[in-house]
Amino acid sequence: MSETLRADATAANPVIPGFHPDPSVCRVGDDYYLVCSTFEYFPAIPVFHSRDLVHWTQLGNALDRPSQLSLTAAPSSGGIYAPTLRHHDGRFWLIVTNVTEGGGNMLFTATDPAGPWSDPVRLPGVPSIDPDLAWDEDGICWCTSAGGAQVRIDPYTGETFGPPRRVWAGTPGAMAPEAPHLYRIGAYWYLLIAEGGTERGHGVSIARGRTPDGPFEPCPDNPVLTHRGTHHPVQNTGHADLVQGPDSSWWMVLLGVRPRGGTPGWHVLGRETFLAPVRWVDDWPVVDEVPSVLPVPAWPLVPGPAEEVRDDFDLSELRPQWISVRDRPAEYCTTKERSGHLTLRARGDSLDEPDVVFVGRRQKHLSCRVRALIEPVEGRGGLAVRLDEEHHFEIEAAEGEVRVLSRVGTLRTVVGARSVPAGPVVLRLQVSDAPPKGPRTGPDVLTFGIEEPDGTFIALGELDGRYLSTEVAGGFTGRVIGLYAAAGTVHFDWFDYEPLVP
């Protein structure tokens, strides 16, 4: 269903909020497809579809079975880094790095981006991380990776031709030249990279040459995009990909963060996917800045279906938005055992453990309300906000008691507890964006509690959200809110995620 735009219409930016970093986009006719990094979470690499570059609907996850991917040895913020998605010769191509022992660079294909995707073609001759794919007019496939290393490959077999050679490594002295993307646009081949590190110094730079293997001439105005050293509400801008809009205008998808609170600013949702307009001057791309409110492109919007607040677990498989830590064996996680319920069986005994049984959804809004109905009669489990094994908050139910727990670094604390009658109990989390009141104000407040049958909320613990931020925990992910089992078997009747503000 289309809507007619007013000249002054605007849309939300980020276009894909929450932990959706390292976007890569391709256009096929009137359709756009986009993928993101997922690190230690499984299934991996969400695949999104759009008709307007503004509204994105998740079709599935490209890597959704053990034959494609093993993450059991992946540390937090290890695993799947920086996929590149391209369409060539009637097929979708997805190249990615698994930063795990026994991983490396891999290539997958599909005729339908919703899947199924193939098992991997291994690429032992491709060095580094962040591999990219581009085909020239002769059908030669060029693979460029972080650090500016480039090698010709056979994408069907993984064979490489000759040793990798460095073609352009960005601005001399700039750290972390990565996320390369190679394009033929007009008379030039352009090599777009991220540099400066994925923190506040992040930026986008570009070079051009007459052939795909260079030599490359850097843009005199590099970086073509950065928000470093500014008060802009979107920071860490980088890891970009270029795409043409329906009217032949050019656009950039990229990652950024939204720091909140006082100093130094804490971002909690992870690196999100933003959209920015691009104009061309003297055959160089110019991006003024990433708008925090996006001027809508000059073509009809095509919104997708609205995301439902409640998941009743009434399908035979979990919806594609649900992700787990490292794996999801059916014997530990199923919607088939009890009709209309999610059943989790414990493996690790807490969220401190790397093999915890956990299924969650990315926090996508600065303020939200999350509720779940748990039946802990046969075990112990609850509702959690996870960043990694050492940074998580949760409200946990066992027969007759509910506790609020905090794990920050080496400290594990019981924040509050309450006796409850035997049987099901509604657990509730309220995330409230906190306006800064001084330099030490955190980004938000997380309040955990239970709901009485009449809907009355009884708060059991209030926690400062800065301790579940990347600036405190480190790493590359964002908050994931979900359900877990820590002992025995627990059943969940439903899960609500309700945004309160963007």
From TrEMBL:
The Beta-xylosidase C-terminal Concanavalin A-like domain, residue ranges: 310-498
Keywords carried by this UniProt record: Glycosidase, Hydrolase
Keyword Hydrolase assigned: yes
GO MF assignments: hydrolase activity
SUPFAM superfamilies, sorted: Arabinanase/levansucrase/invertase, Concanavalin A-like lectins/glucanases
UniProt superkingdom: Bacteria
Family: Belongs to the glycosyl hydrolase 43 family.
Designated name of the protein: Glycoside hydrolase family 43 protein
Biological source species: Streptomyces doebereineriae
